[in-house]
Design a protein that fits this description.
The strands form 4 sheets. An 8-stranded mixed beta sheet has the order 3-2-1-4-11-6-12-9, with helices on both faces. The protein has a 3-stranded antiparallel beta sheet with strand order 8-7-10. It has a two-stranded antiparallel sheet with strand order 5-13. Strand 14 and strand 15 form a beta hairpin. It has 241 residues and is an alpha/beta fold. Helices cover 29% and strands 29% of the residues. The N and C termini lie far apart (45 Å). It is built from 7 helices and 15 strands.
């Protein structure tokens, strides 16, 4: 079973949950699957959640990491796919990611894109360009819009650190925890996933984000989360030669 876990907080034009629902069958390519949606302060009707999906109402916008954990809490699959609701899935996309996890013992987090990150500065150093279809390229962090992990691995690292609520650096932290456990994060070539950067579009630092019953400047969120990442993981950084 492949469980697709989505955290949503805002209605928006396609690509969205409605369009995602229409793409799941082809993306699963015959694999059994389910859609699990955390509702961050939005109703299922307003979010356009497909009728067959499992939902977890959170009342207010608690953020990405709490939302992903909530969606995973009702998931029943041995593979968890964490997906933004502004992605488009092509035929076989989810089945391809699951196949890598099931066939490659070394695989931790896998997805269609990734990057190298510095744990000293908490910043992306470079992107890892996708290789040929079927290729597996090591990376530090798999891009947060679409990535898959075994349920057993998710449980072993304790899920997502909810300190990072409402957003930013949660996938960096998670991928780092998986690498620290001895597994390898991989960019899988040729996975047909398109990210439209609609709801995920970069916002100005002075924008106020409503979460957990309060509003906070985006720059404050970024500063706090980046500092937490560095404090938590910089000891793993490779010393210079």
């Amino acid at each position: 079973m492949i469980s697709v876990c989505v955290a949503t907080y805002k209605a928006h034009p396609a690509p969205n949950l409605r369009s995602l629902g229409t793409q799941l069958e082809a993306a699963l390519s015959g694999e059994p699957g389910e859609l699990c949606v955390a509702l961050n302060g939005i109703s299922a009707a307003d979010a356009g959640v497909p009728a067959a999906a499992r939902t977890v109402p959170l009342g207010v916008n608690r953020g990405v990491a709490p939302g992903w954990n909530a969606a995973a809490s009702v998931a029943t699959g041995d593979v968890l796919v964490f997906l933004n609701d502004d992605c488009e899935l092509g035929p076989g996309a989810l089945a391809q990611l699951a196949a890598v996890l099931r066939s490659e013992a070394r695989s931790g987090v896998v997805g269609p894109g990734g990057a190298r990150w510095s744990l000293v500065t908490g910043e992306r150093e470079s992107f890892v360009p996708p290789g040929e279809p079927g290729s597996l390229l090591p990376c530090d962090v798999v891009d947060g819009h679409c990535f898959a992990v075994r349920r057993a691995t998710y449980d072993a690292v304790g899920g997502f650190d909810e300190f990072y609520a409402p957003a930013s650096w949660e996938e960096v932290d998670f991928c780092t925890a998986v690498r620290a456990s001895g597994l390898e994060n991989l960019v899988v070539g040729g996975v047909p996933v398109a990210h439209e950067w609609g709801i995920s579009a970069k916002a100005p630092p002075w924008r106020r984000i409503a979460h957990n019953g309060r509003k906070e400047l985006l720059w404050s969120i970024h500063r706090r989360n980046r500092a937490h990442l560095i404090e938590k993981w910089s000891h793993l950084a490779t010393a210079p030669d």
